[in-house]
Design goal:
Largest sheet: 4 strands, antiparallel
Low-confidence stretches: 1-27
Strand content: 25-35%
Shape: globular
Distance between the termini: 69 Å
Structural class: alpha+beta
Strand order of the largest sheet: 1-2-3-4
Radius of gyration: 21 Å
Mean pLDDT: 80
Length: 192
């Protein structure tokens, strides 16, 4: 029996080594988790337009109004970014244009944002619809922004699908300082 336990112990060593080698904690980090690196707009001071938008956000919203920054806008609406949960989450905020128009937001942790960005879909009752996706700053979004009508200082990593237009399926995008790819896929809205 003693000989069997030695063989079993020796057989477990490579398995334990494999488990440690494949540990997520040991994996190479794809990008920095510093907020200004992930979303450069958050490194700039809040301007008057940012403050105006922050005042229009409902009080029960989870975002920190002092962190809100306008990314850009188009004929459909305004698109902003903010932080939540004491700076541990990054949020995208969409406000469709028009009196009494709708808005929406979505937040994710910085770790999840670095991997997949954050997106939200907003649709008026029987009207306009947009799906908005904010990508980490190190992702080259050029291949999916060919027909963008966005204007603003921070639109390079903002992707807006007006009227929930179908995308081209899943697209692998390059990261600027990593060989790891960013997998982007269009998000359809549930209603039309």
């Amino acid at each position: 029996m003693k000989r069997f336990s030695k063989v079993l112990s020796l057989a477990c060593v490579p398995v334990a080594g494999l488990a440690i080698g494949a540990s997520p904690a040991m994996a190479q980090q794809i990008t920095s988790l510093d907020t200004p690196v992930l979303v450069p707009a958050l490194a700039f001071p809040q301007g008057l337009q940012d403050k105006e938008i922050a005042r229009s956000i409902p009080g029960q919203a989870a975002v920190d109004p002092a962190s809100l920054r306008l990314l850009g806008e188009d004929t459909n609406g305004k698109y902003s970014v903010a932080q939540a949960e004491g700076g541990t989450q990054i949020c995208i905020i969409v406000q469709l244009r028009g009196v009494g128009s709708v808005g929406g937001s979505s937040c994710t942790t910085k770790e999840q944002f670095a991997l997949s960005g954050v997106r939200v879909g907003v649709q008026e009752n029987g009207g306009r619809a947009v799906v908005t996706h904010l990508l980490p700053a190190d992702v080259d979004a050029t291949p999916i922004k060919a027909n963008s009508n966005l204007t603003g200082k921070f639109v390079s990593n903002l992707v807006v699908q007006p009227n929930a237009s179908p995308g081209s399926g899943q697209v692998e995008l390059d990261r600027l300082k990593s060989s790891a790819k960013f997998n982007y896929s269009a998000l359809p809205l549930a209603f039309k």
